[in-house]
Structures are given as structure tokens and as C-alpha cells.
Specification:
The structure is a single chain. With 292 residues, the chain is mainly α. It has one domain. Helices cover 72% and strands 3% of the residues. It has helices spanning 4-35, 42-59, 64-87, 97-119, 145-167, 169-179, 181-186, 191-213, 223-238, 243-263, 270-282, and strands at residues 135-138, 141-144. Helix 2 (42-59) packs across helix 8.
């Protein structure tokens, strides 16, 4: 029998994992909402963010390496995504979704091989900065400081995305392009570059997720595969292209997995998928309104 302290601790662990999922899924949902591109390579960019974080932390001694990596790694991912968008993706937006799906799958395989060439196949690890090491006591439960940091970062990212999409000119144009891209073009706006900016922002968030997850897991080839499956499921149950739906879906996924580990660890991975099935049976179009 588990006491309140264990339950609270497990709930907080689930929420902290949900925040990483949300940041990655928010980027995927943004790209889906504006560009209508089911980007399977999103997971590979998340993986590149994690590996880049490892390299940067090795370049700088002490805790400064992680904070520098948290800034630089997502920016490098954004640069990679901009090159890919201008060279490849911008020519394919009018193609069928199946072709886009196959294309982005091919890109993910190429990026996976490039990661293997650059970083090798060995497991990598990143230590949390000194400020976030150790645990604190919350409601009688011991809770890692880094996980608390993740819980605080998630809402800040959500607010930043909301402010960008609702309060900035480029954000409003992106929302308009998601609804009627032809009309946006008629108004004299370069829709191609609007799409490029939207794609880069979405991929930047994948890099942020990769940088944040680095101290919590082993950084290895293939870490993108599980993530992208979970991300698409979360985006689907939340509502395609709906950022707040991505947040709710991430919380469902993270918390059910966390409690699954506590109550039935052998089958913990099954619990989030059961939750997904239940949601889709009750709400086939997702929990919140889809932009598609």
C-alpha cells in the first residue's frame, strides 16, 4: 500500500516528464497546424538537440556548460531545420499527406545515420547543473530539483508560445496562413517564408525538449523513435494543431505512465496507450478543437 508521499512524488514525476513531452509536442502541433506537415523527422531533431547538449557540456567545465547548451543546442537544431526547409520541405507542401509522411520518414533515417557518424553508437550522459542537483522535500516526499525545474519550465514555454501566436505579427500571420494560405498570399505576404519561420519555431521546440531531457535519460541512437510515436499520439488525442490540447495530452500520457510504474511496473508502458484508446473512443476528434 502506498502512502500520500509516494503518490504525490509519483504525480510530480509524471508532470515533470509531461512537460518535456509537451514542449516537443507543441512544436510538432505548431508545424501540423500551420504547414499541415506530419513531420516524423521531428523526433530526430529532438535527438540531435540531446546529443548537441552532450557535446556542448563537454566543451565547457562546470555547470555553465549545461546552461550554454540549453541556449545553443536548440538554436543549432533551428539552423539545421531552416536548411532542410529551404532546400527540401518548401517544394513539397502541396503534396499529399502520405507523400509528406514518407518523405519526413526518409529524412529521419538520414538524420539518424548522421548522428551515428558524428557521435557514434555509444550511450552518452549529461549531468544536471550543480544548482539543480539533489532533492527537496515537497509534501513529505523527496523530489529531484531538476524535475521541479522542468515543471516550472513547461508553463513558461506554453505562455511564450501563446504570446507569440496571439500577440506578435508573425504569429497572427501564421494563424491566418493555417486557415487560408491563399488569402494570405493575395495580401502580398510571402507565405513561403511564413511557413519557413513556423517550421523553424516548431523544430526549435524539439531542440529545447532534447536539451532538457539530456540530464534525465541516457542519450542514445533510437531515442527519437519512441518519442515521435508518443508525440503523434499526444497531438492526436489533444486535437491536431491545438497547443493546449498538446498540453492536456502530454499530462495524460506522462501521469498515466508514472502511476503505471508505481502500481504495475512490468506493464507501465501500456497504461498511457490504454488512456489514449479511452480518449479516442470517447472523443475521436481529440479532446480540444482540431485546426484541421
Amino acid at each position: 500500500m502506498f502512502g500520500p508521499a509516494e503518490l504525490i512524488s509519483q504525480l510530480l514525476v509524471g508532470i515533470s516528464r509531461s512537460m518535456i513531452l509537451f514542449i516537443v509536442c507543441a512544436g510538432l502541433s505548431f508545424v501540423l497546424g500551420v504547414l499541415r506537415v506530419p513531420n516524423i523527422a521531428h523526433g530526430s531533431l529532438y535527438m540531435i538537440g540531446a546529443f548537441t547538449t552532450f557535446s556542448i557540456t563537454k566543451m565547457f567545465a562546470g555547470s555553465a556548460g549545461f546552461w550554454i547548451a540549453l541556449i545553443v543546442a536548440p538554436l543549432l537544431v533551428a539552423v539545421v531545420s531552416l536548411v532542410a526547409e529551404r532546400a527540401l520541405f518548401c517544394h513539397l507542401y502541396e503534396r499529399e499527406h502520405l507523400m509528406l509522411l514518407l518523405f519526413t520518414f526518409a529524412i529521419s533515417l538520414i538524420l539518424g545515420d548522421l548522428v551515428k557518424i558524428v557521435w557514434g553508437a555509444e550511450y552518452k550522459s549529461v549531468s544536471a547543473p550543480a544548482l539543480l542537483k539533489g532533492s527537496i522535500s515537497l509534501f513529505g516526499a523527496s523530489f529531484p530539483r531538476y524535475n521541479l525545474f522542468l515543471i516550472l519550465v513547461g508553463p513558461l514555454v506554453a505562455i511564450a508560445i501563446w504570446l507569440f501566436t496571439n500577440k506578435t505579427k508573425i504569429g497572427k500571420i501564421s494563424r491566418a496562413a493555417a486557415v487560408d494560405r491563399e488569402m494570405v498570399g493575395v495580401l502580398g505576404i510571402n507565405v513561403s517564408w511564413v511557413f519557413a519561420i513556423a517550421f523553424v519555431i516548431g523544430c526549435y521546440l524539439a531542440g529545447v525538449g532534447g536539451a532538457l531531457v539530456a540530464p534525465t535519460v541516457s542519450i542514445t541512437l533510437g531515442m527519437d523513435h519512441t518519442l515521435i510515436i508518443e508525440a503523434f499520439l499526444i497531438v492526436i488525442i489533444g486535437g491536431l494543431g491545438n497547443m493546449w490540447g498538446a498540453l492536456v495530452g502530454s499530462l495524460i500520457f506522462g501521469i498515466t505512465h508514472s502511476f503505471g510504474v508505481l502500481f504495475w511496473p512490468q506493464f507501465a508502458i501500456v497504461f498511457p496507450y490504454i488512456a489514449v484508446v479511452i480518449v479516442l473512443l470517447l472523443r475521436p476528434k481529440g479532446l480540444l478543437k482540431s485546426v484541421w
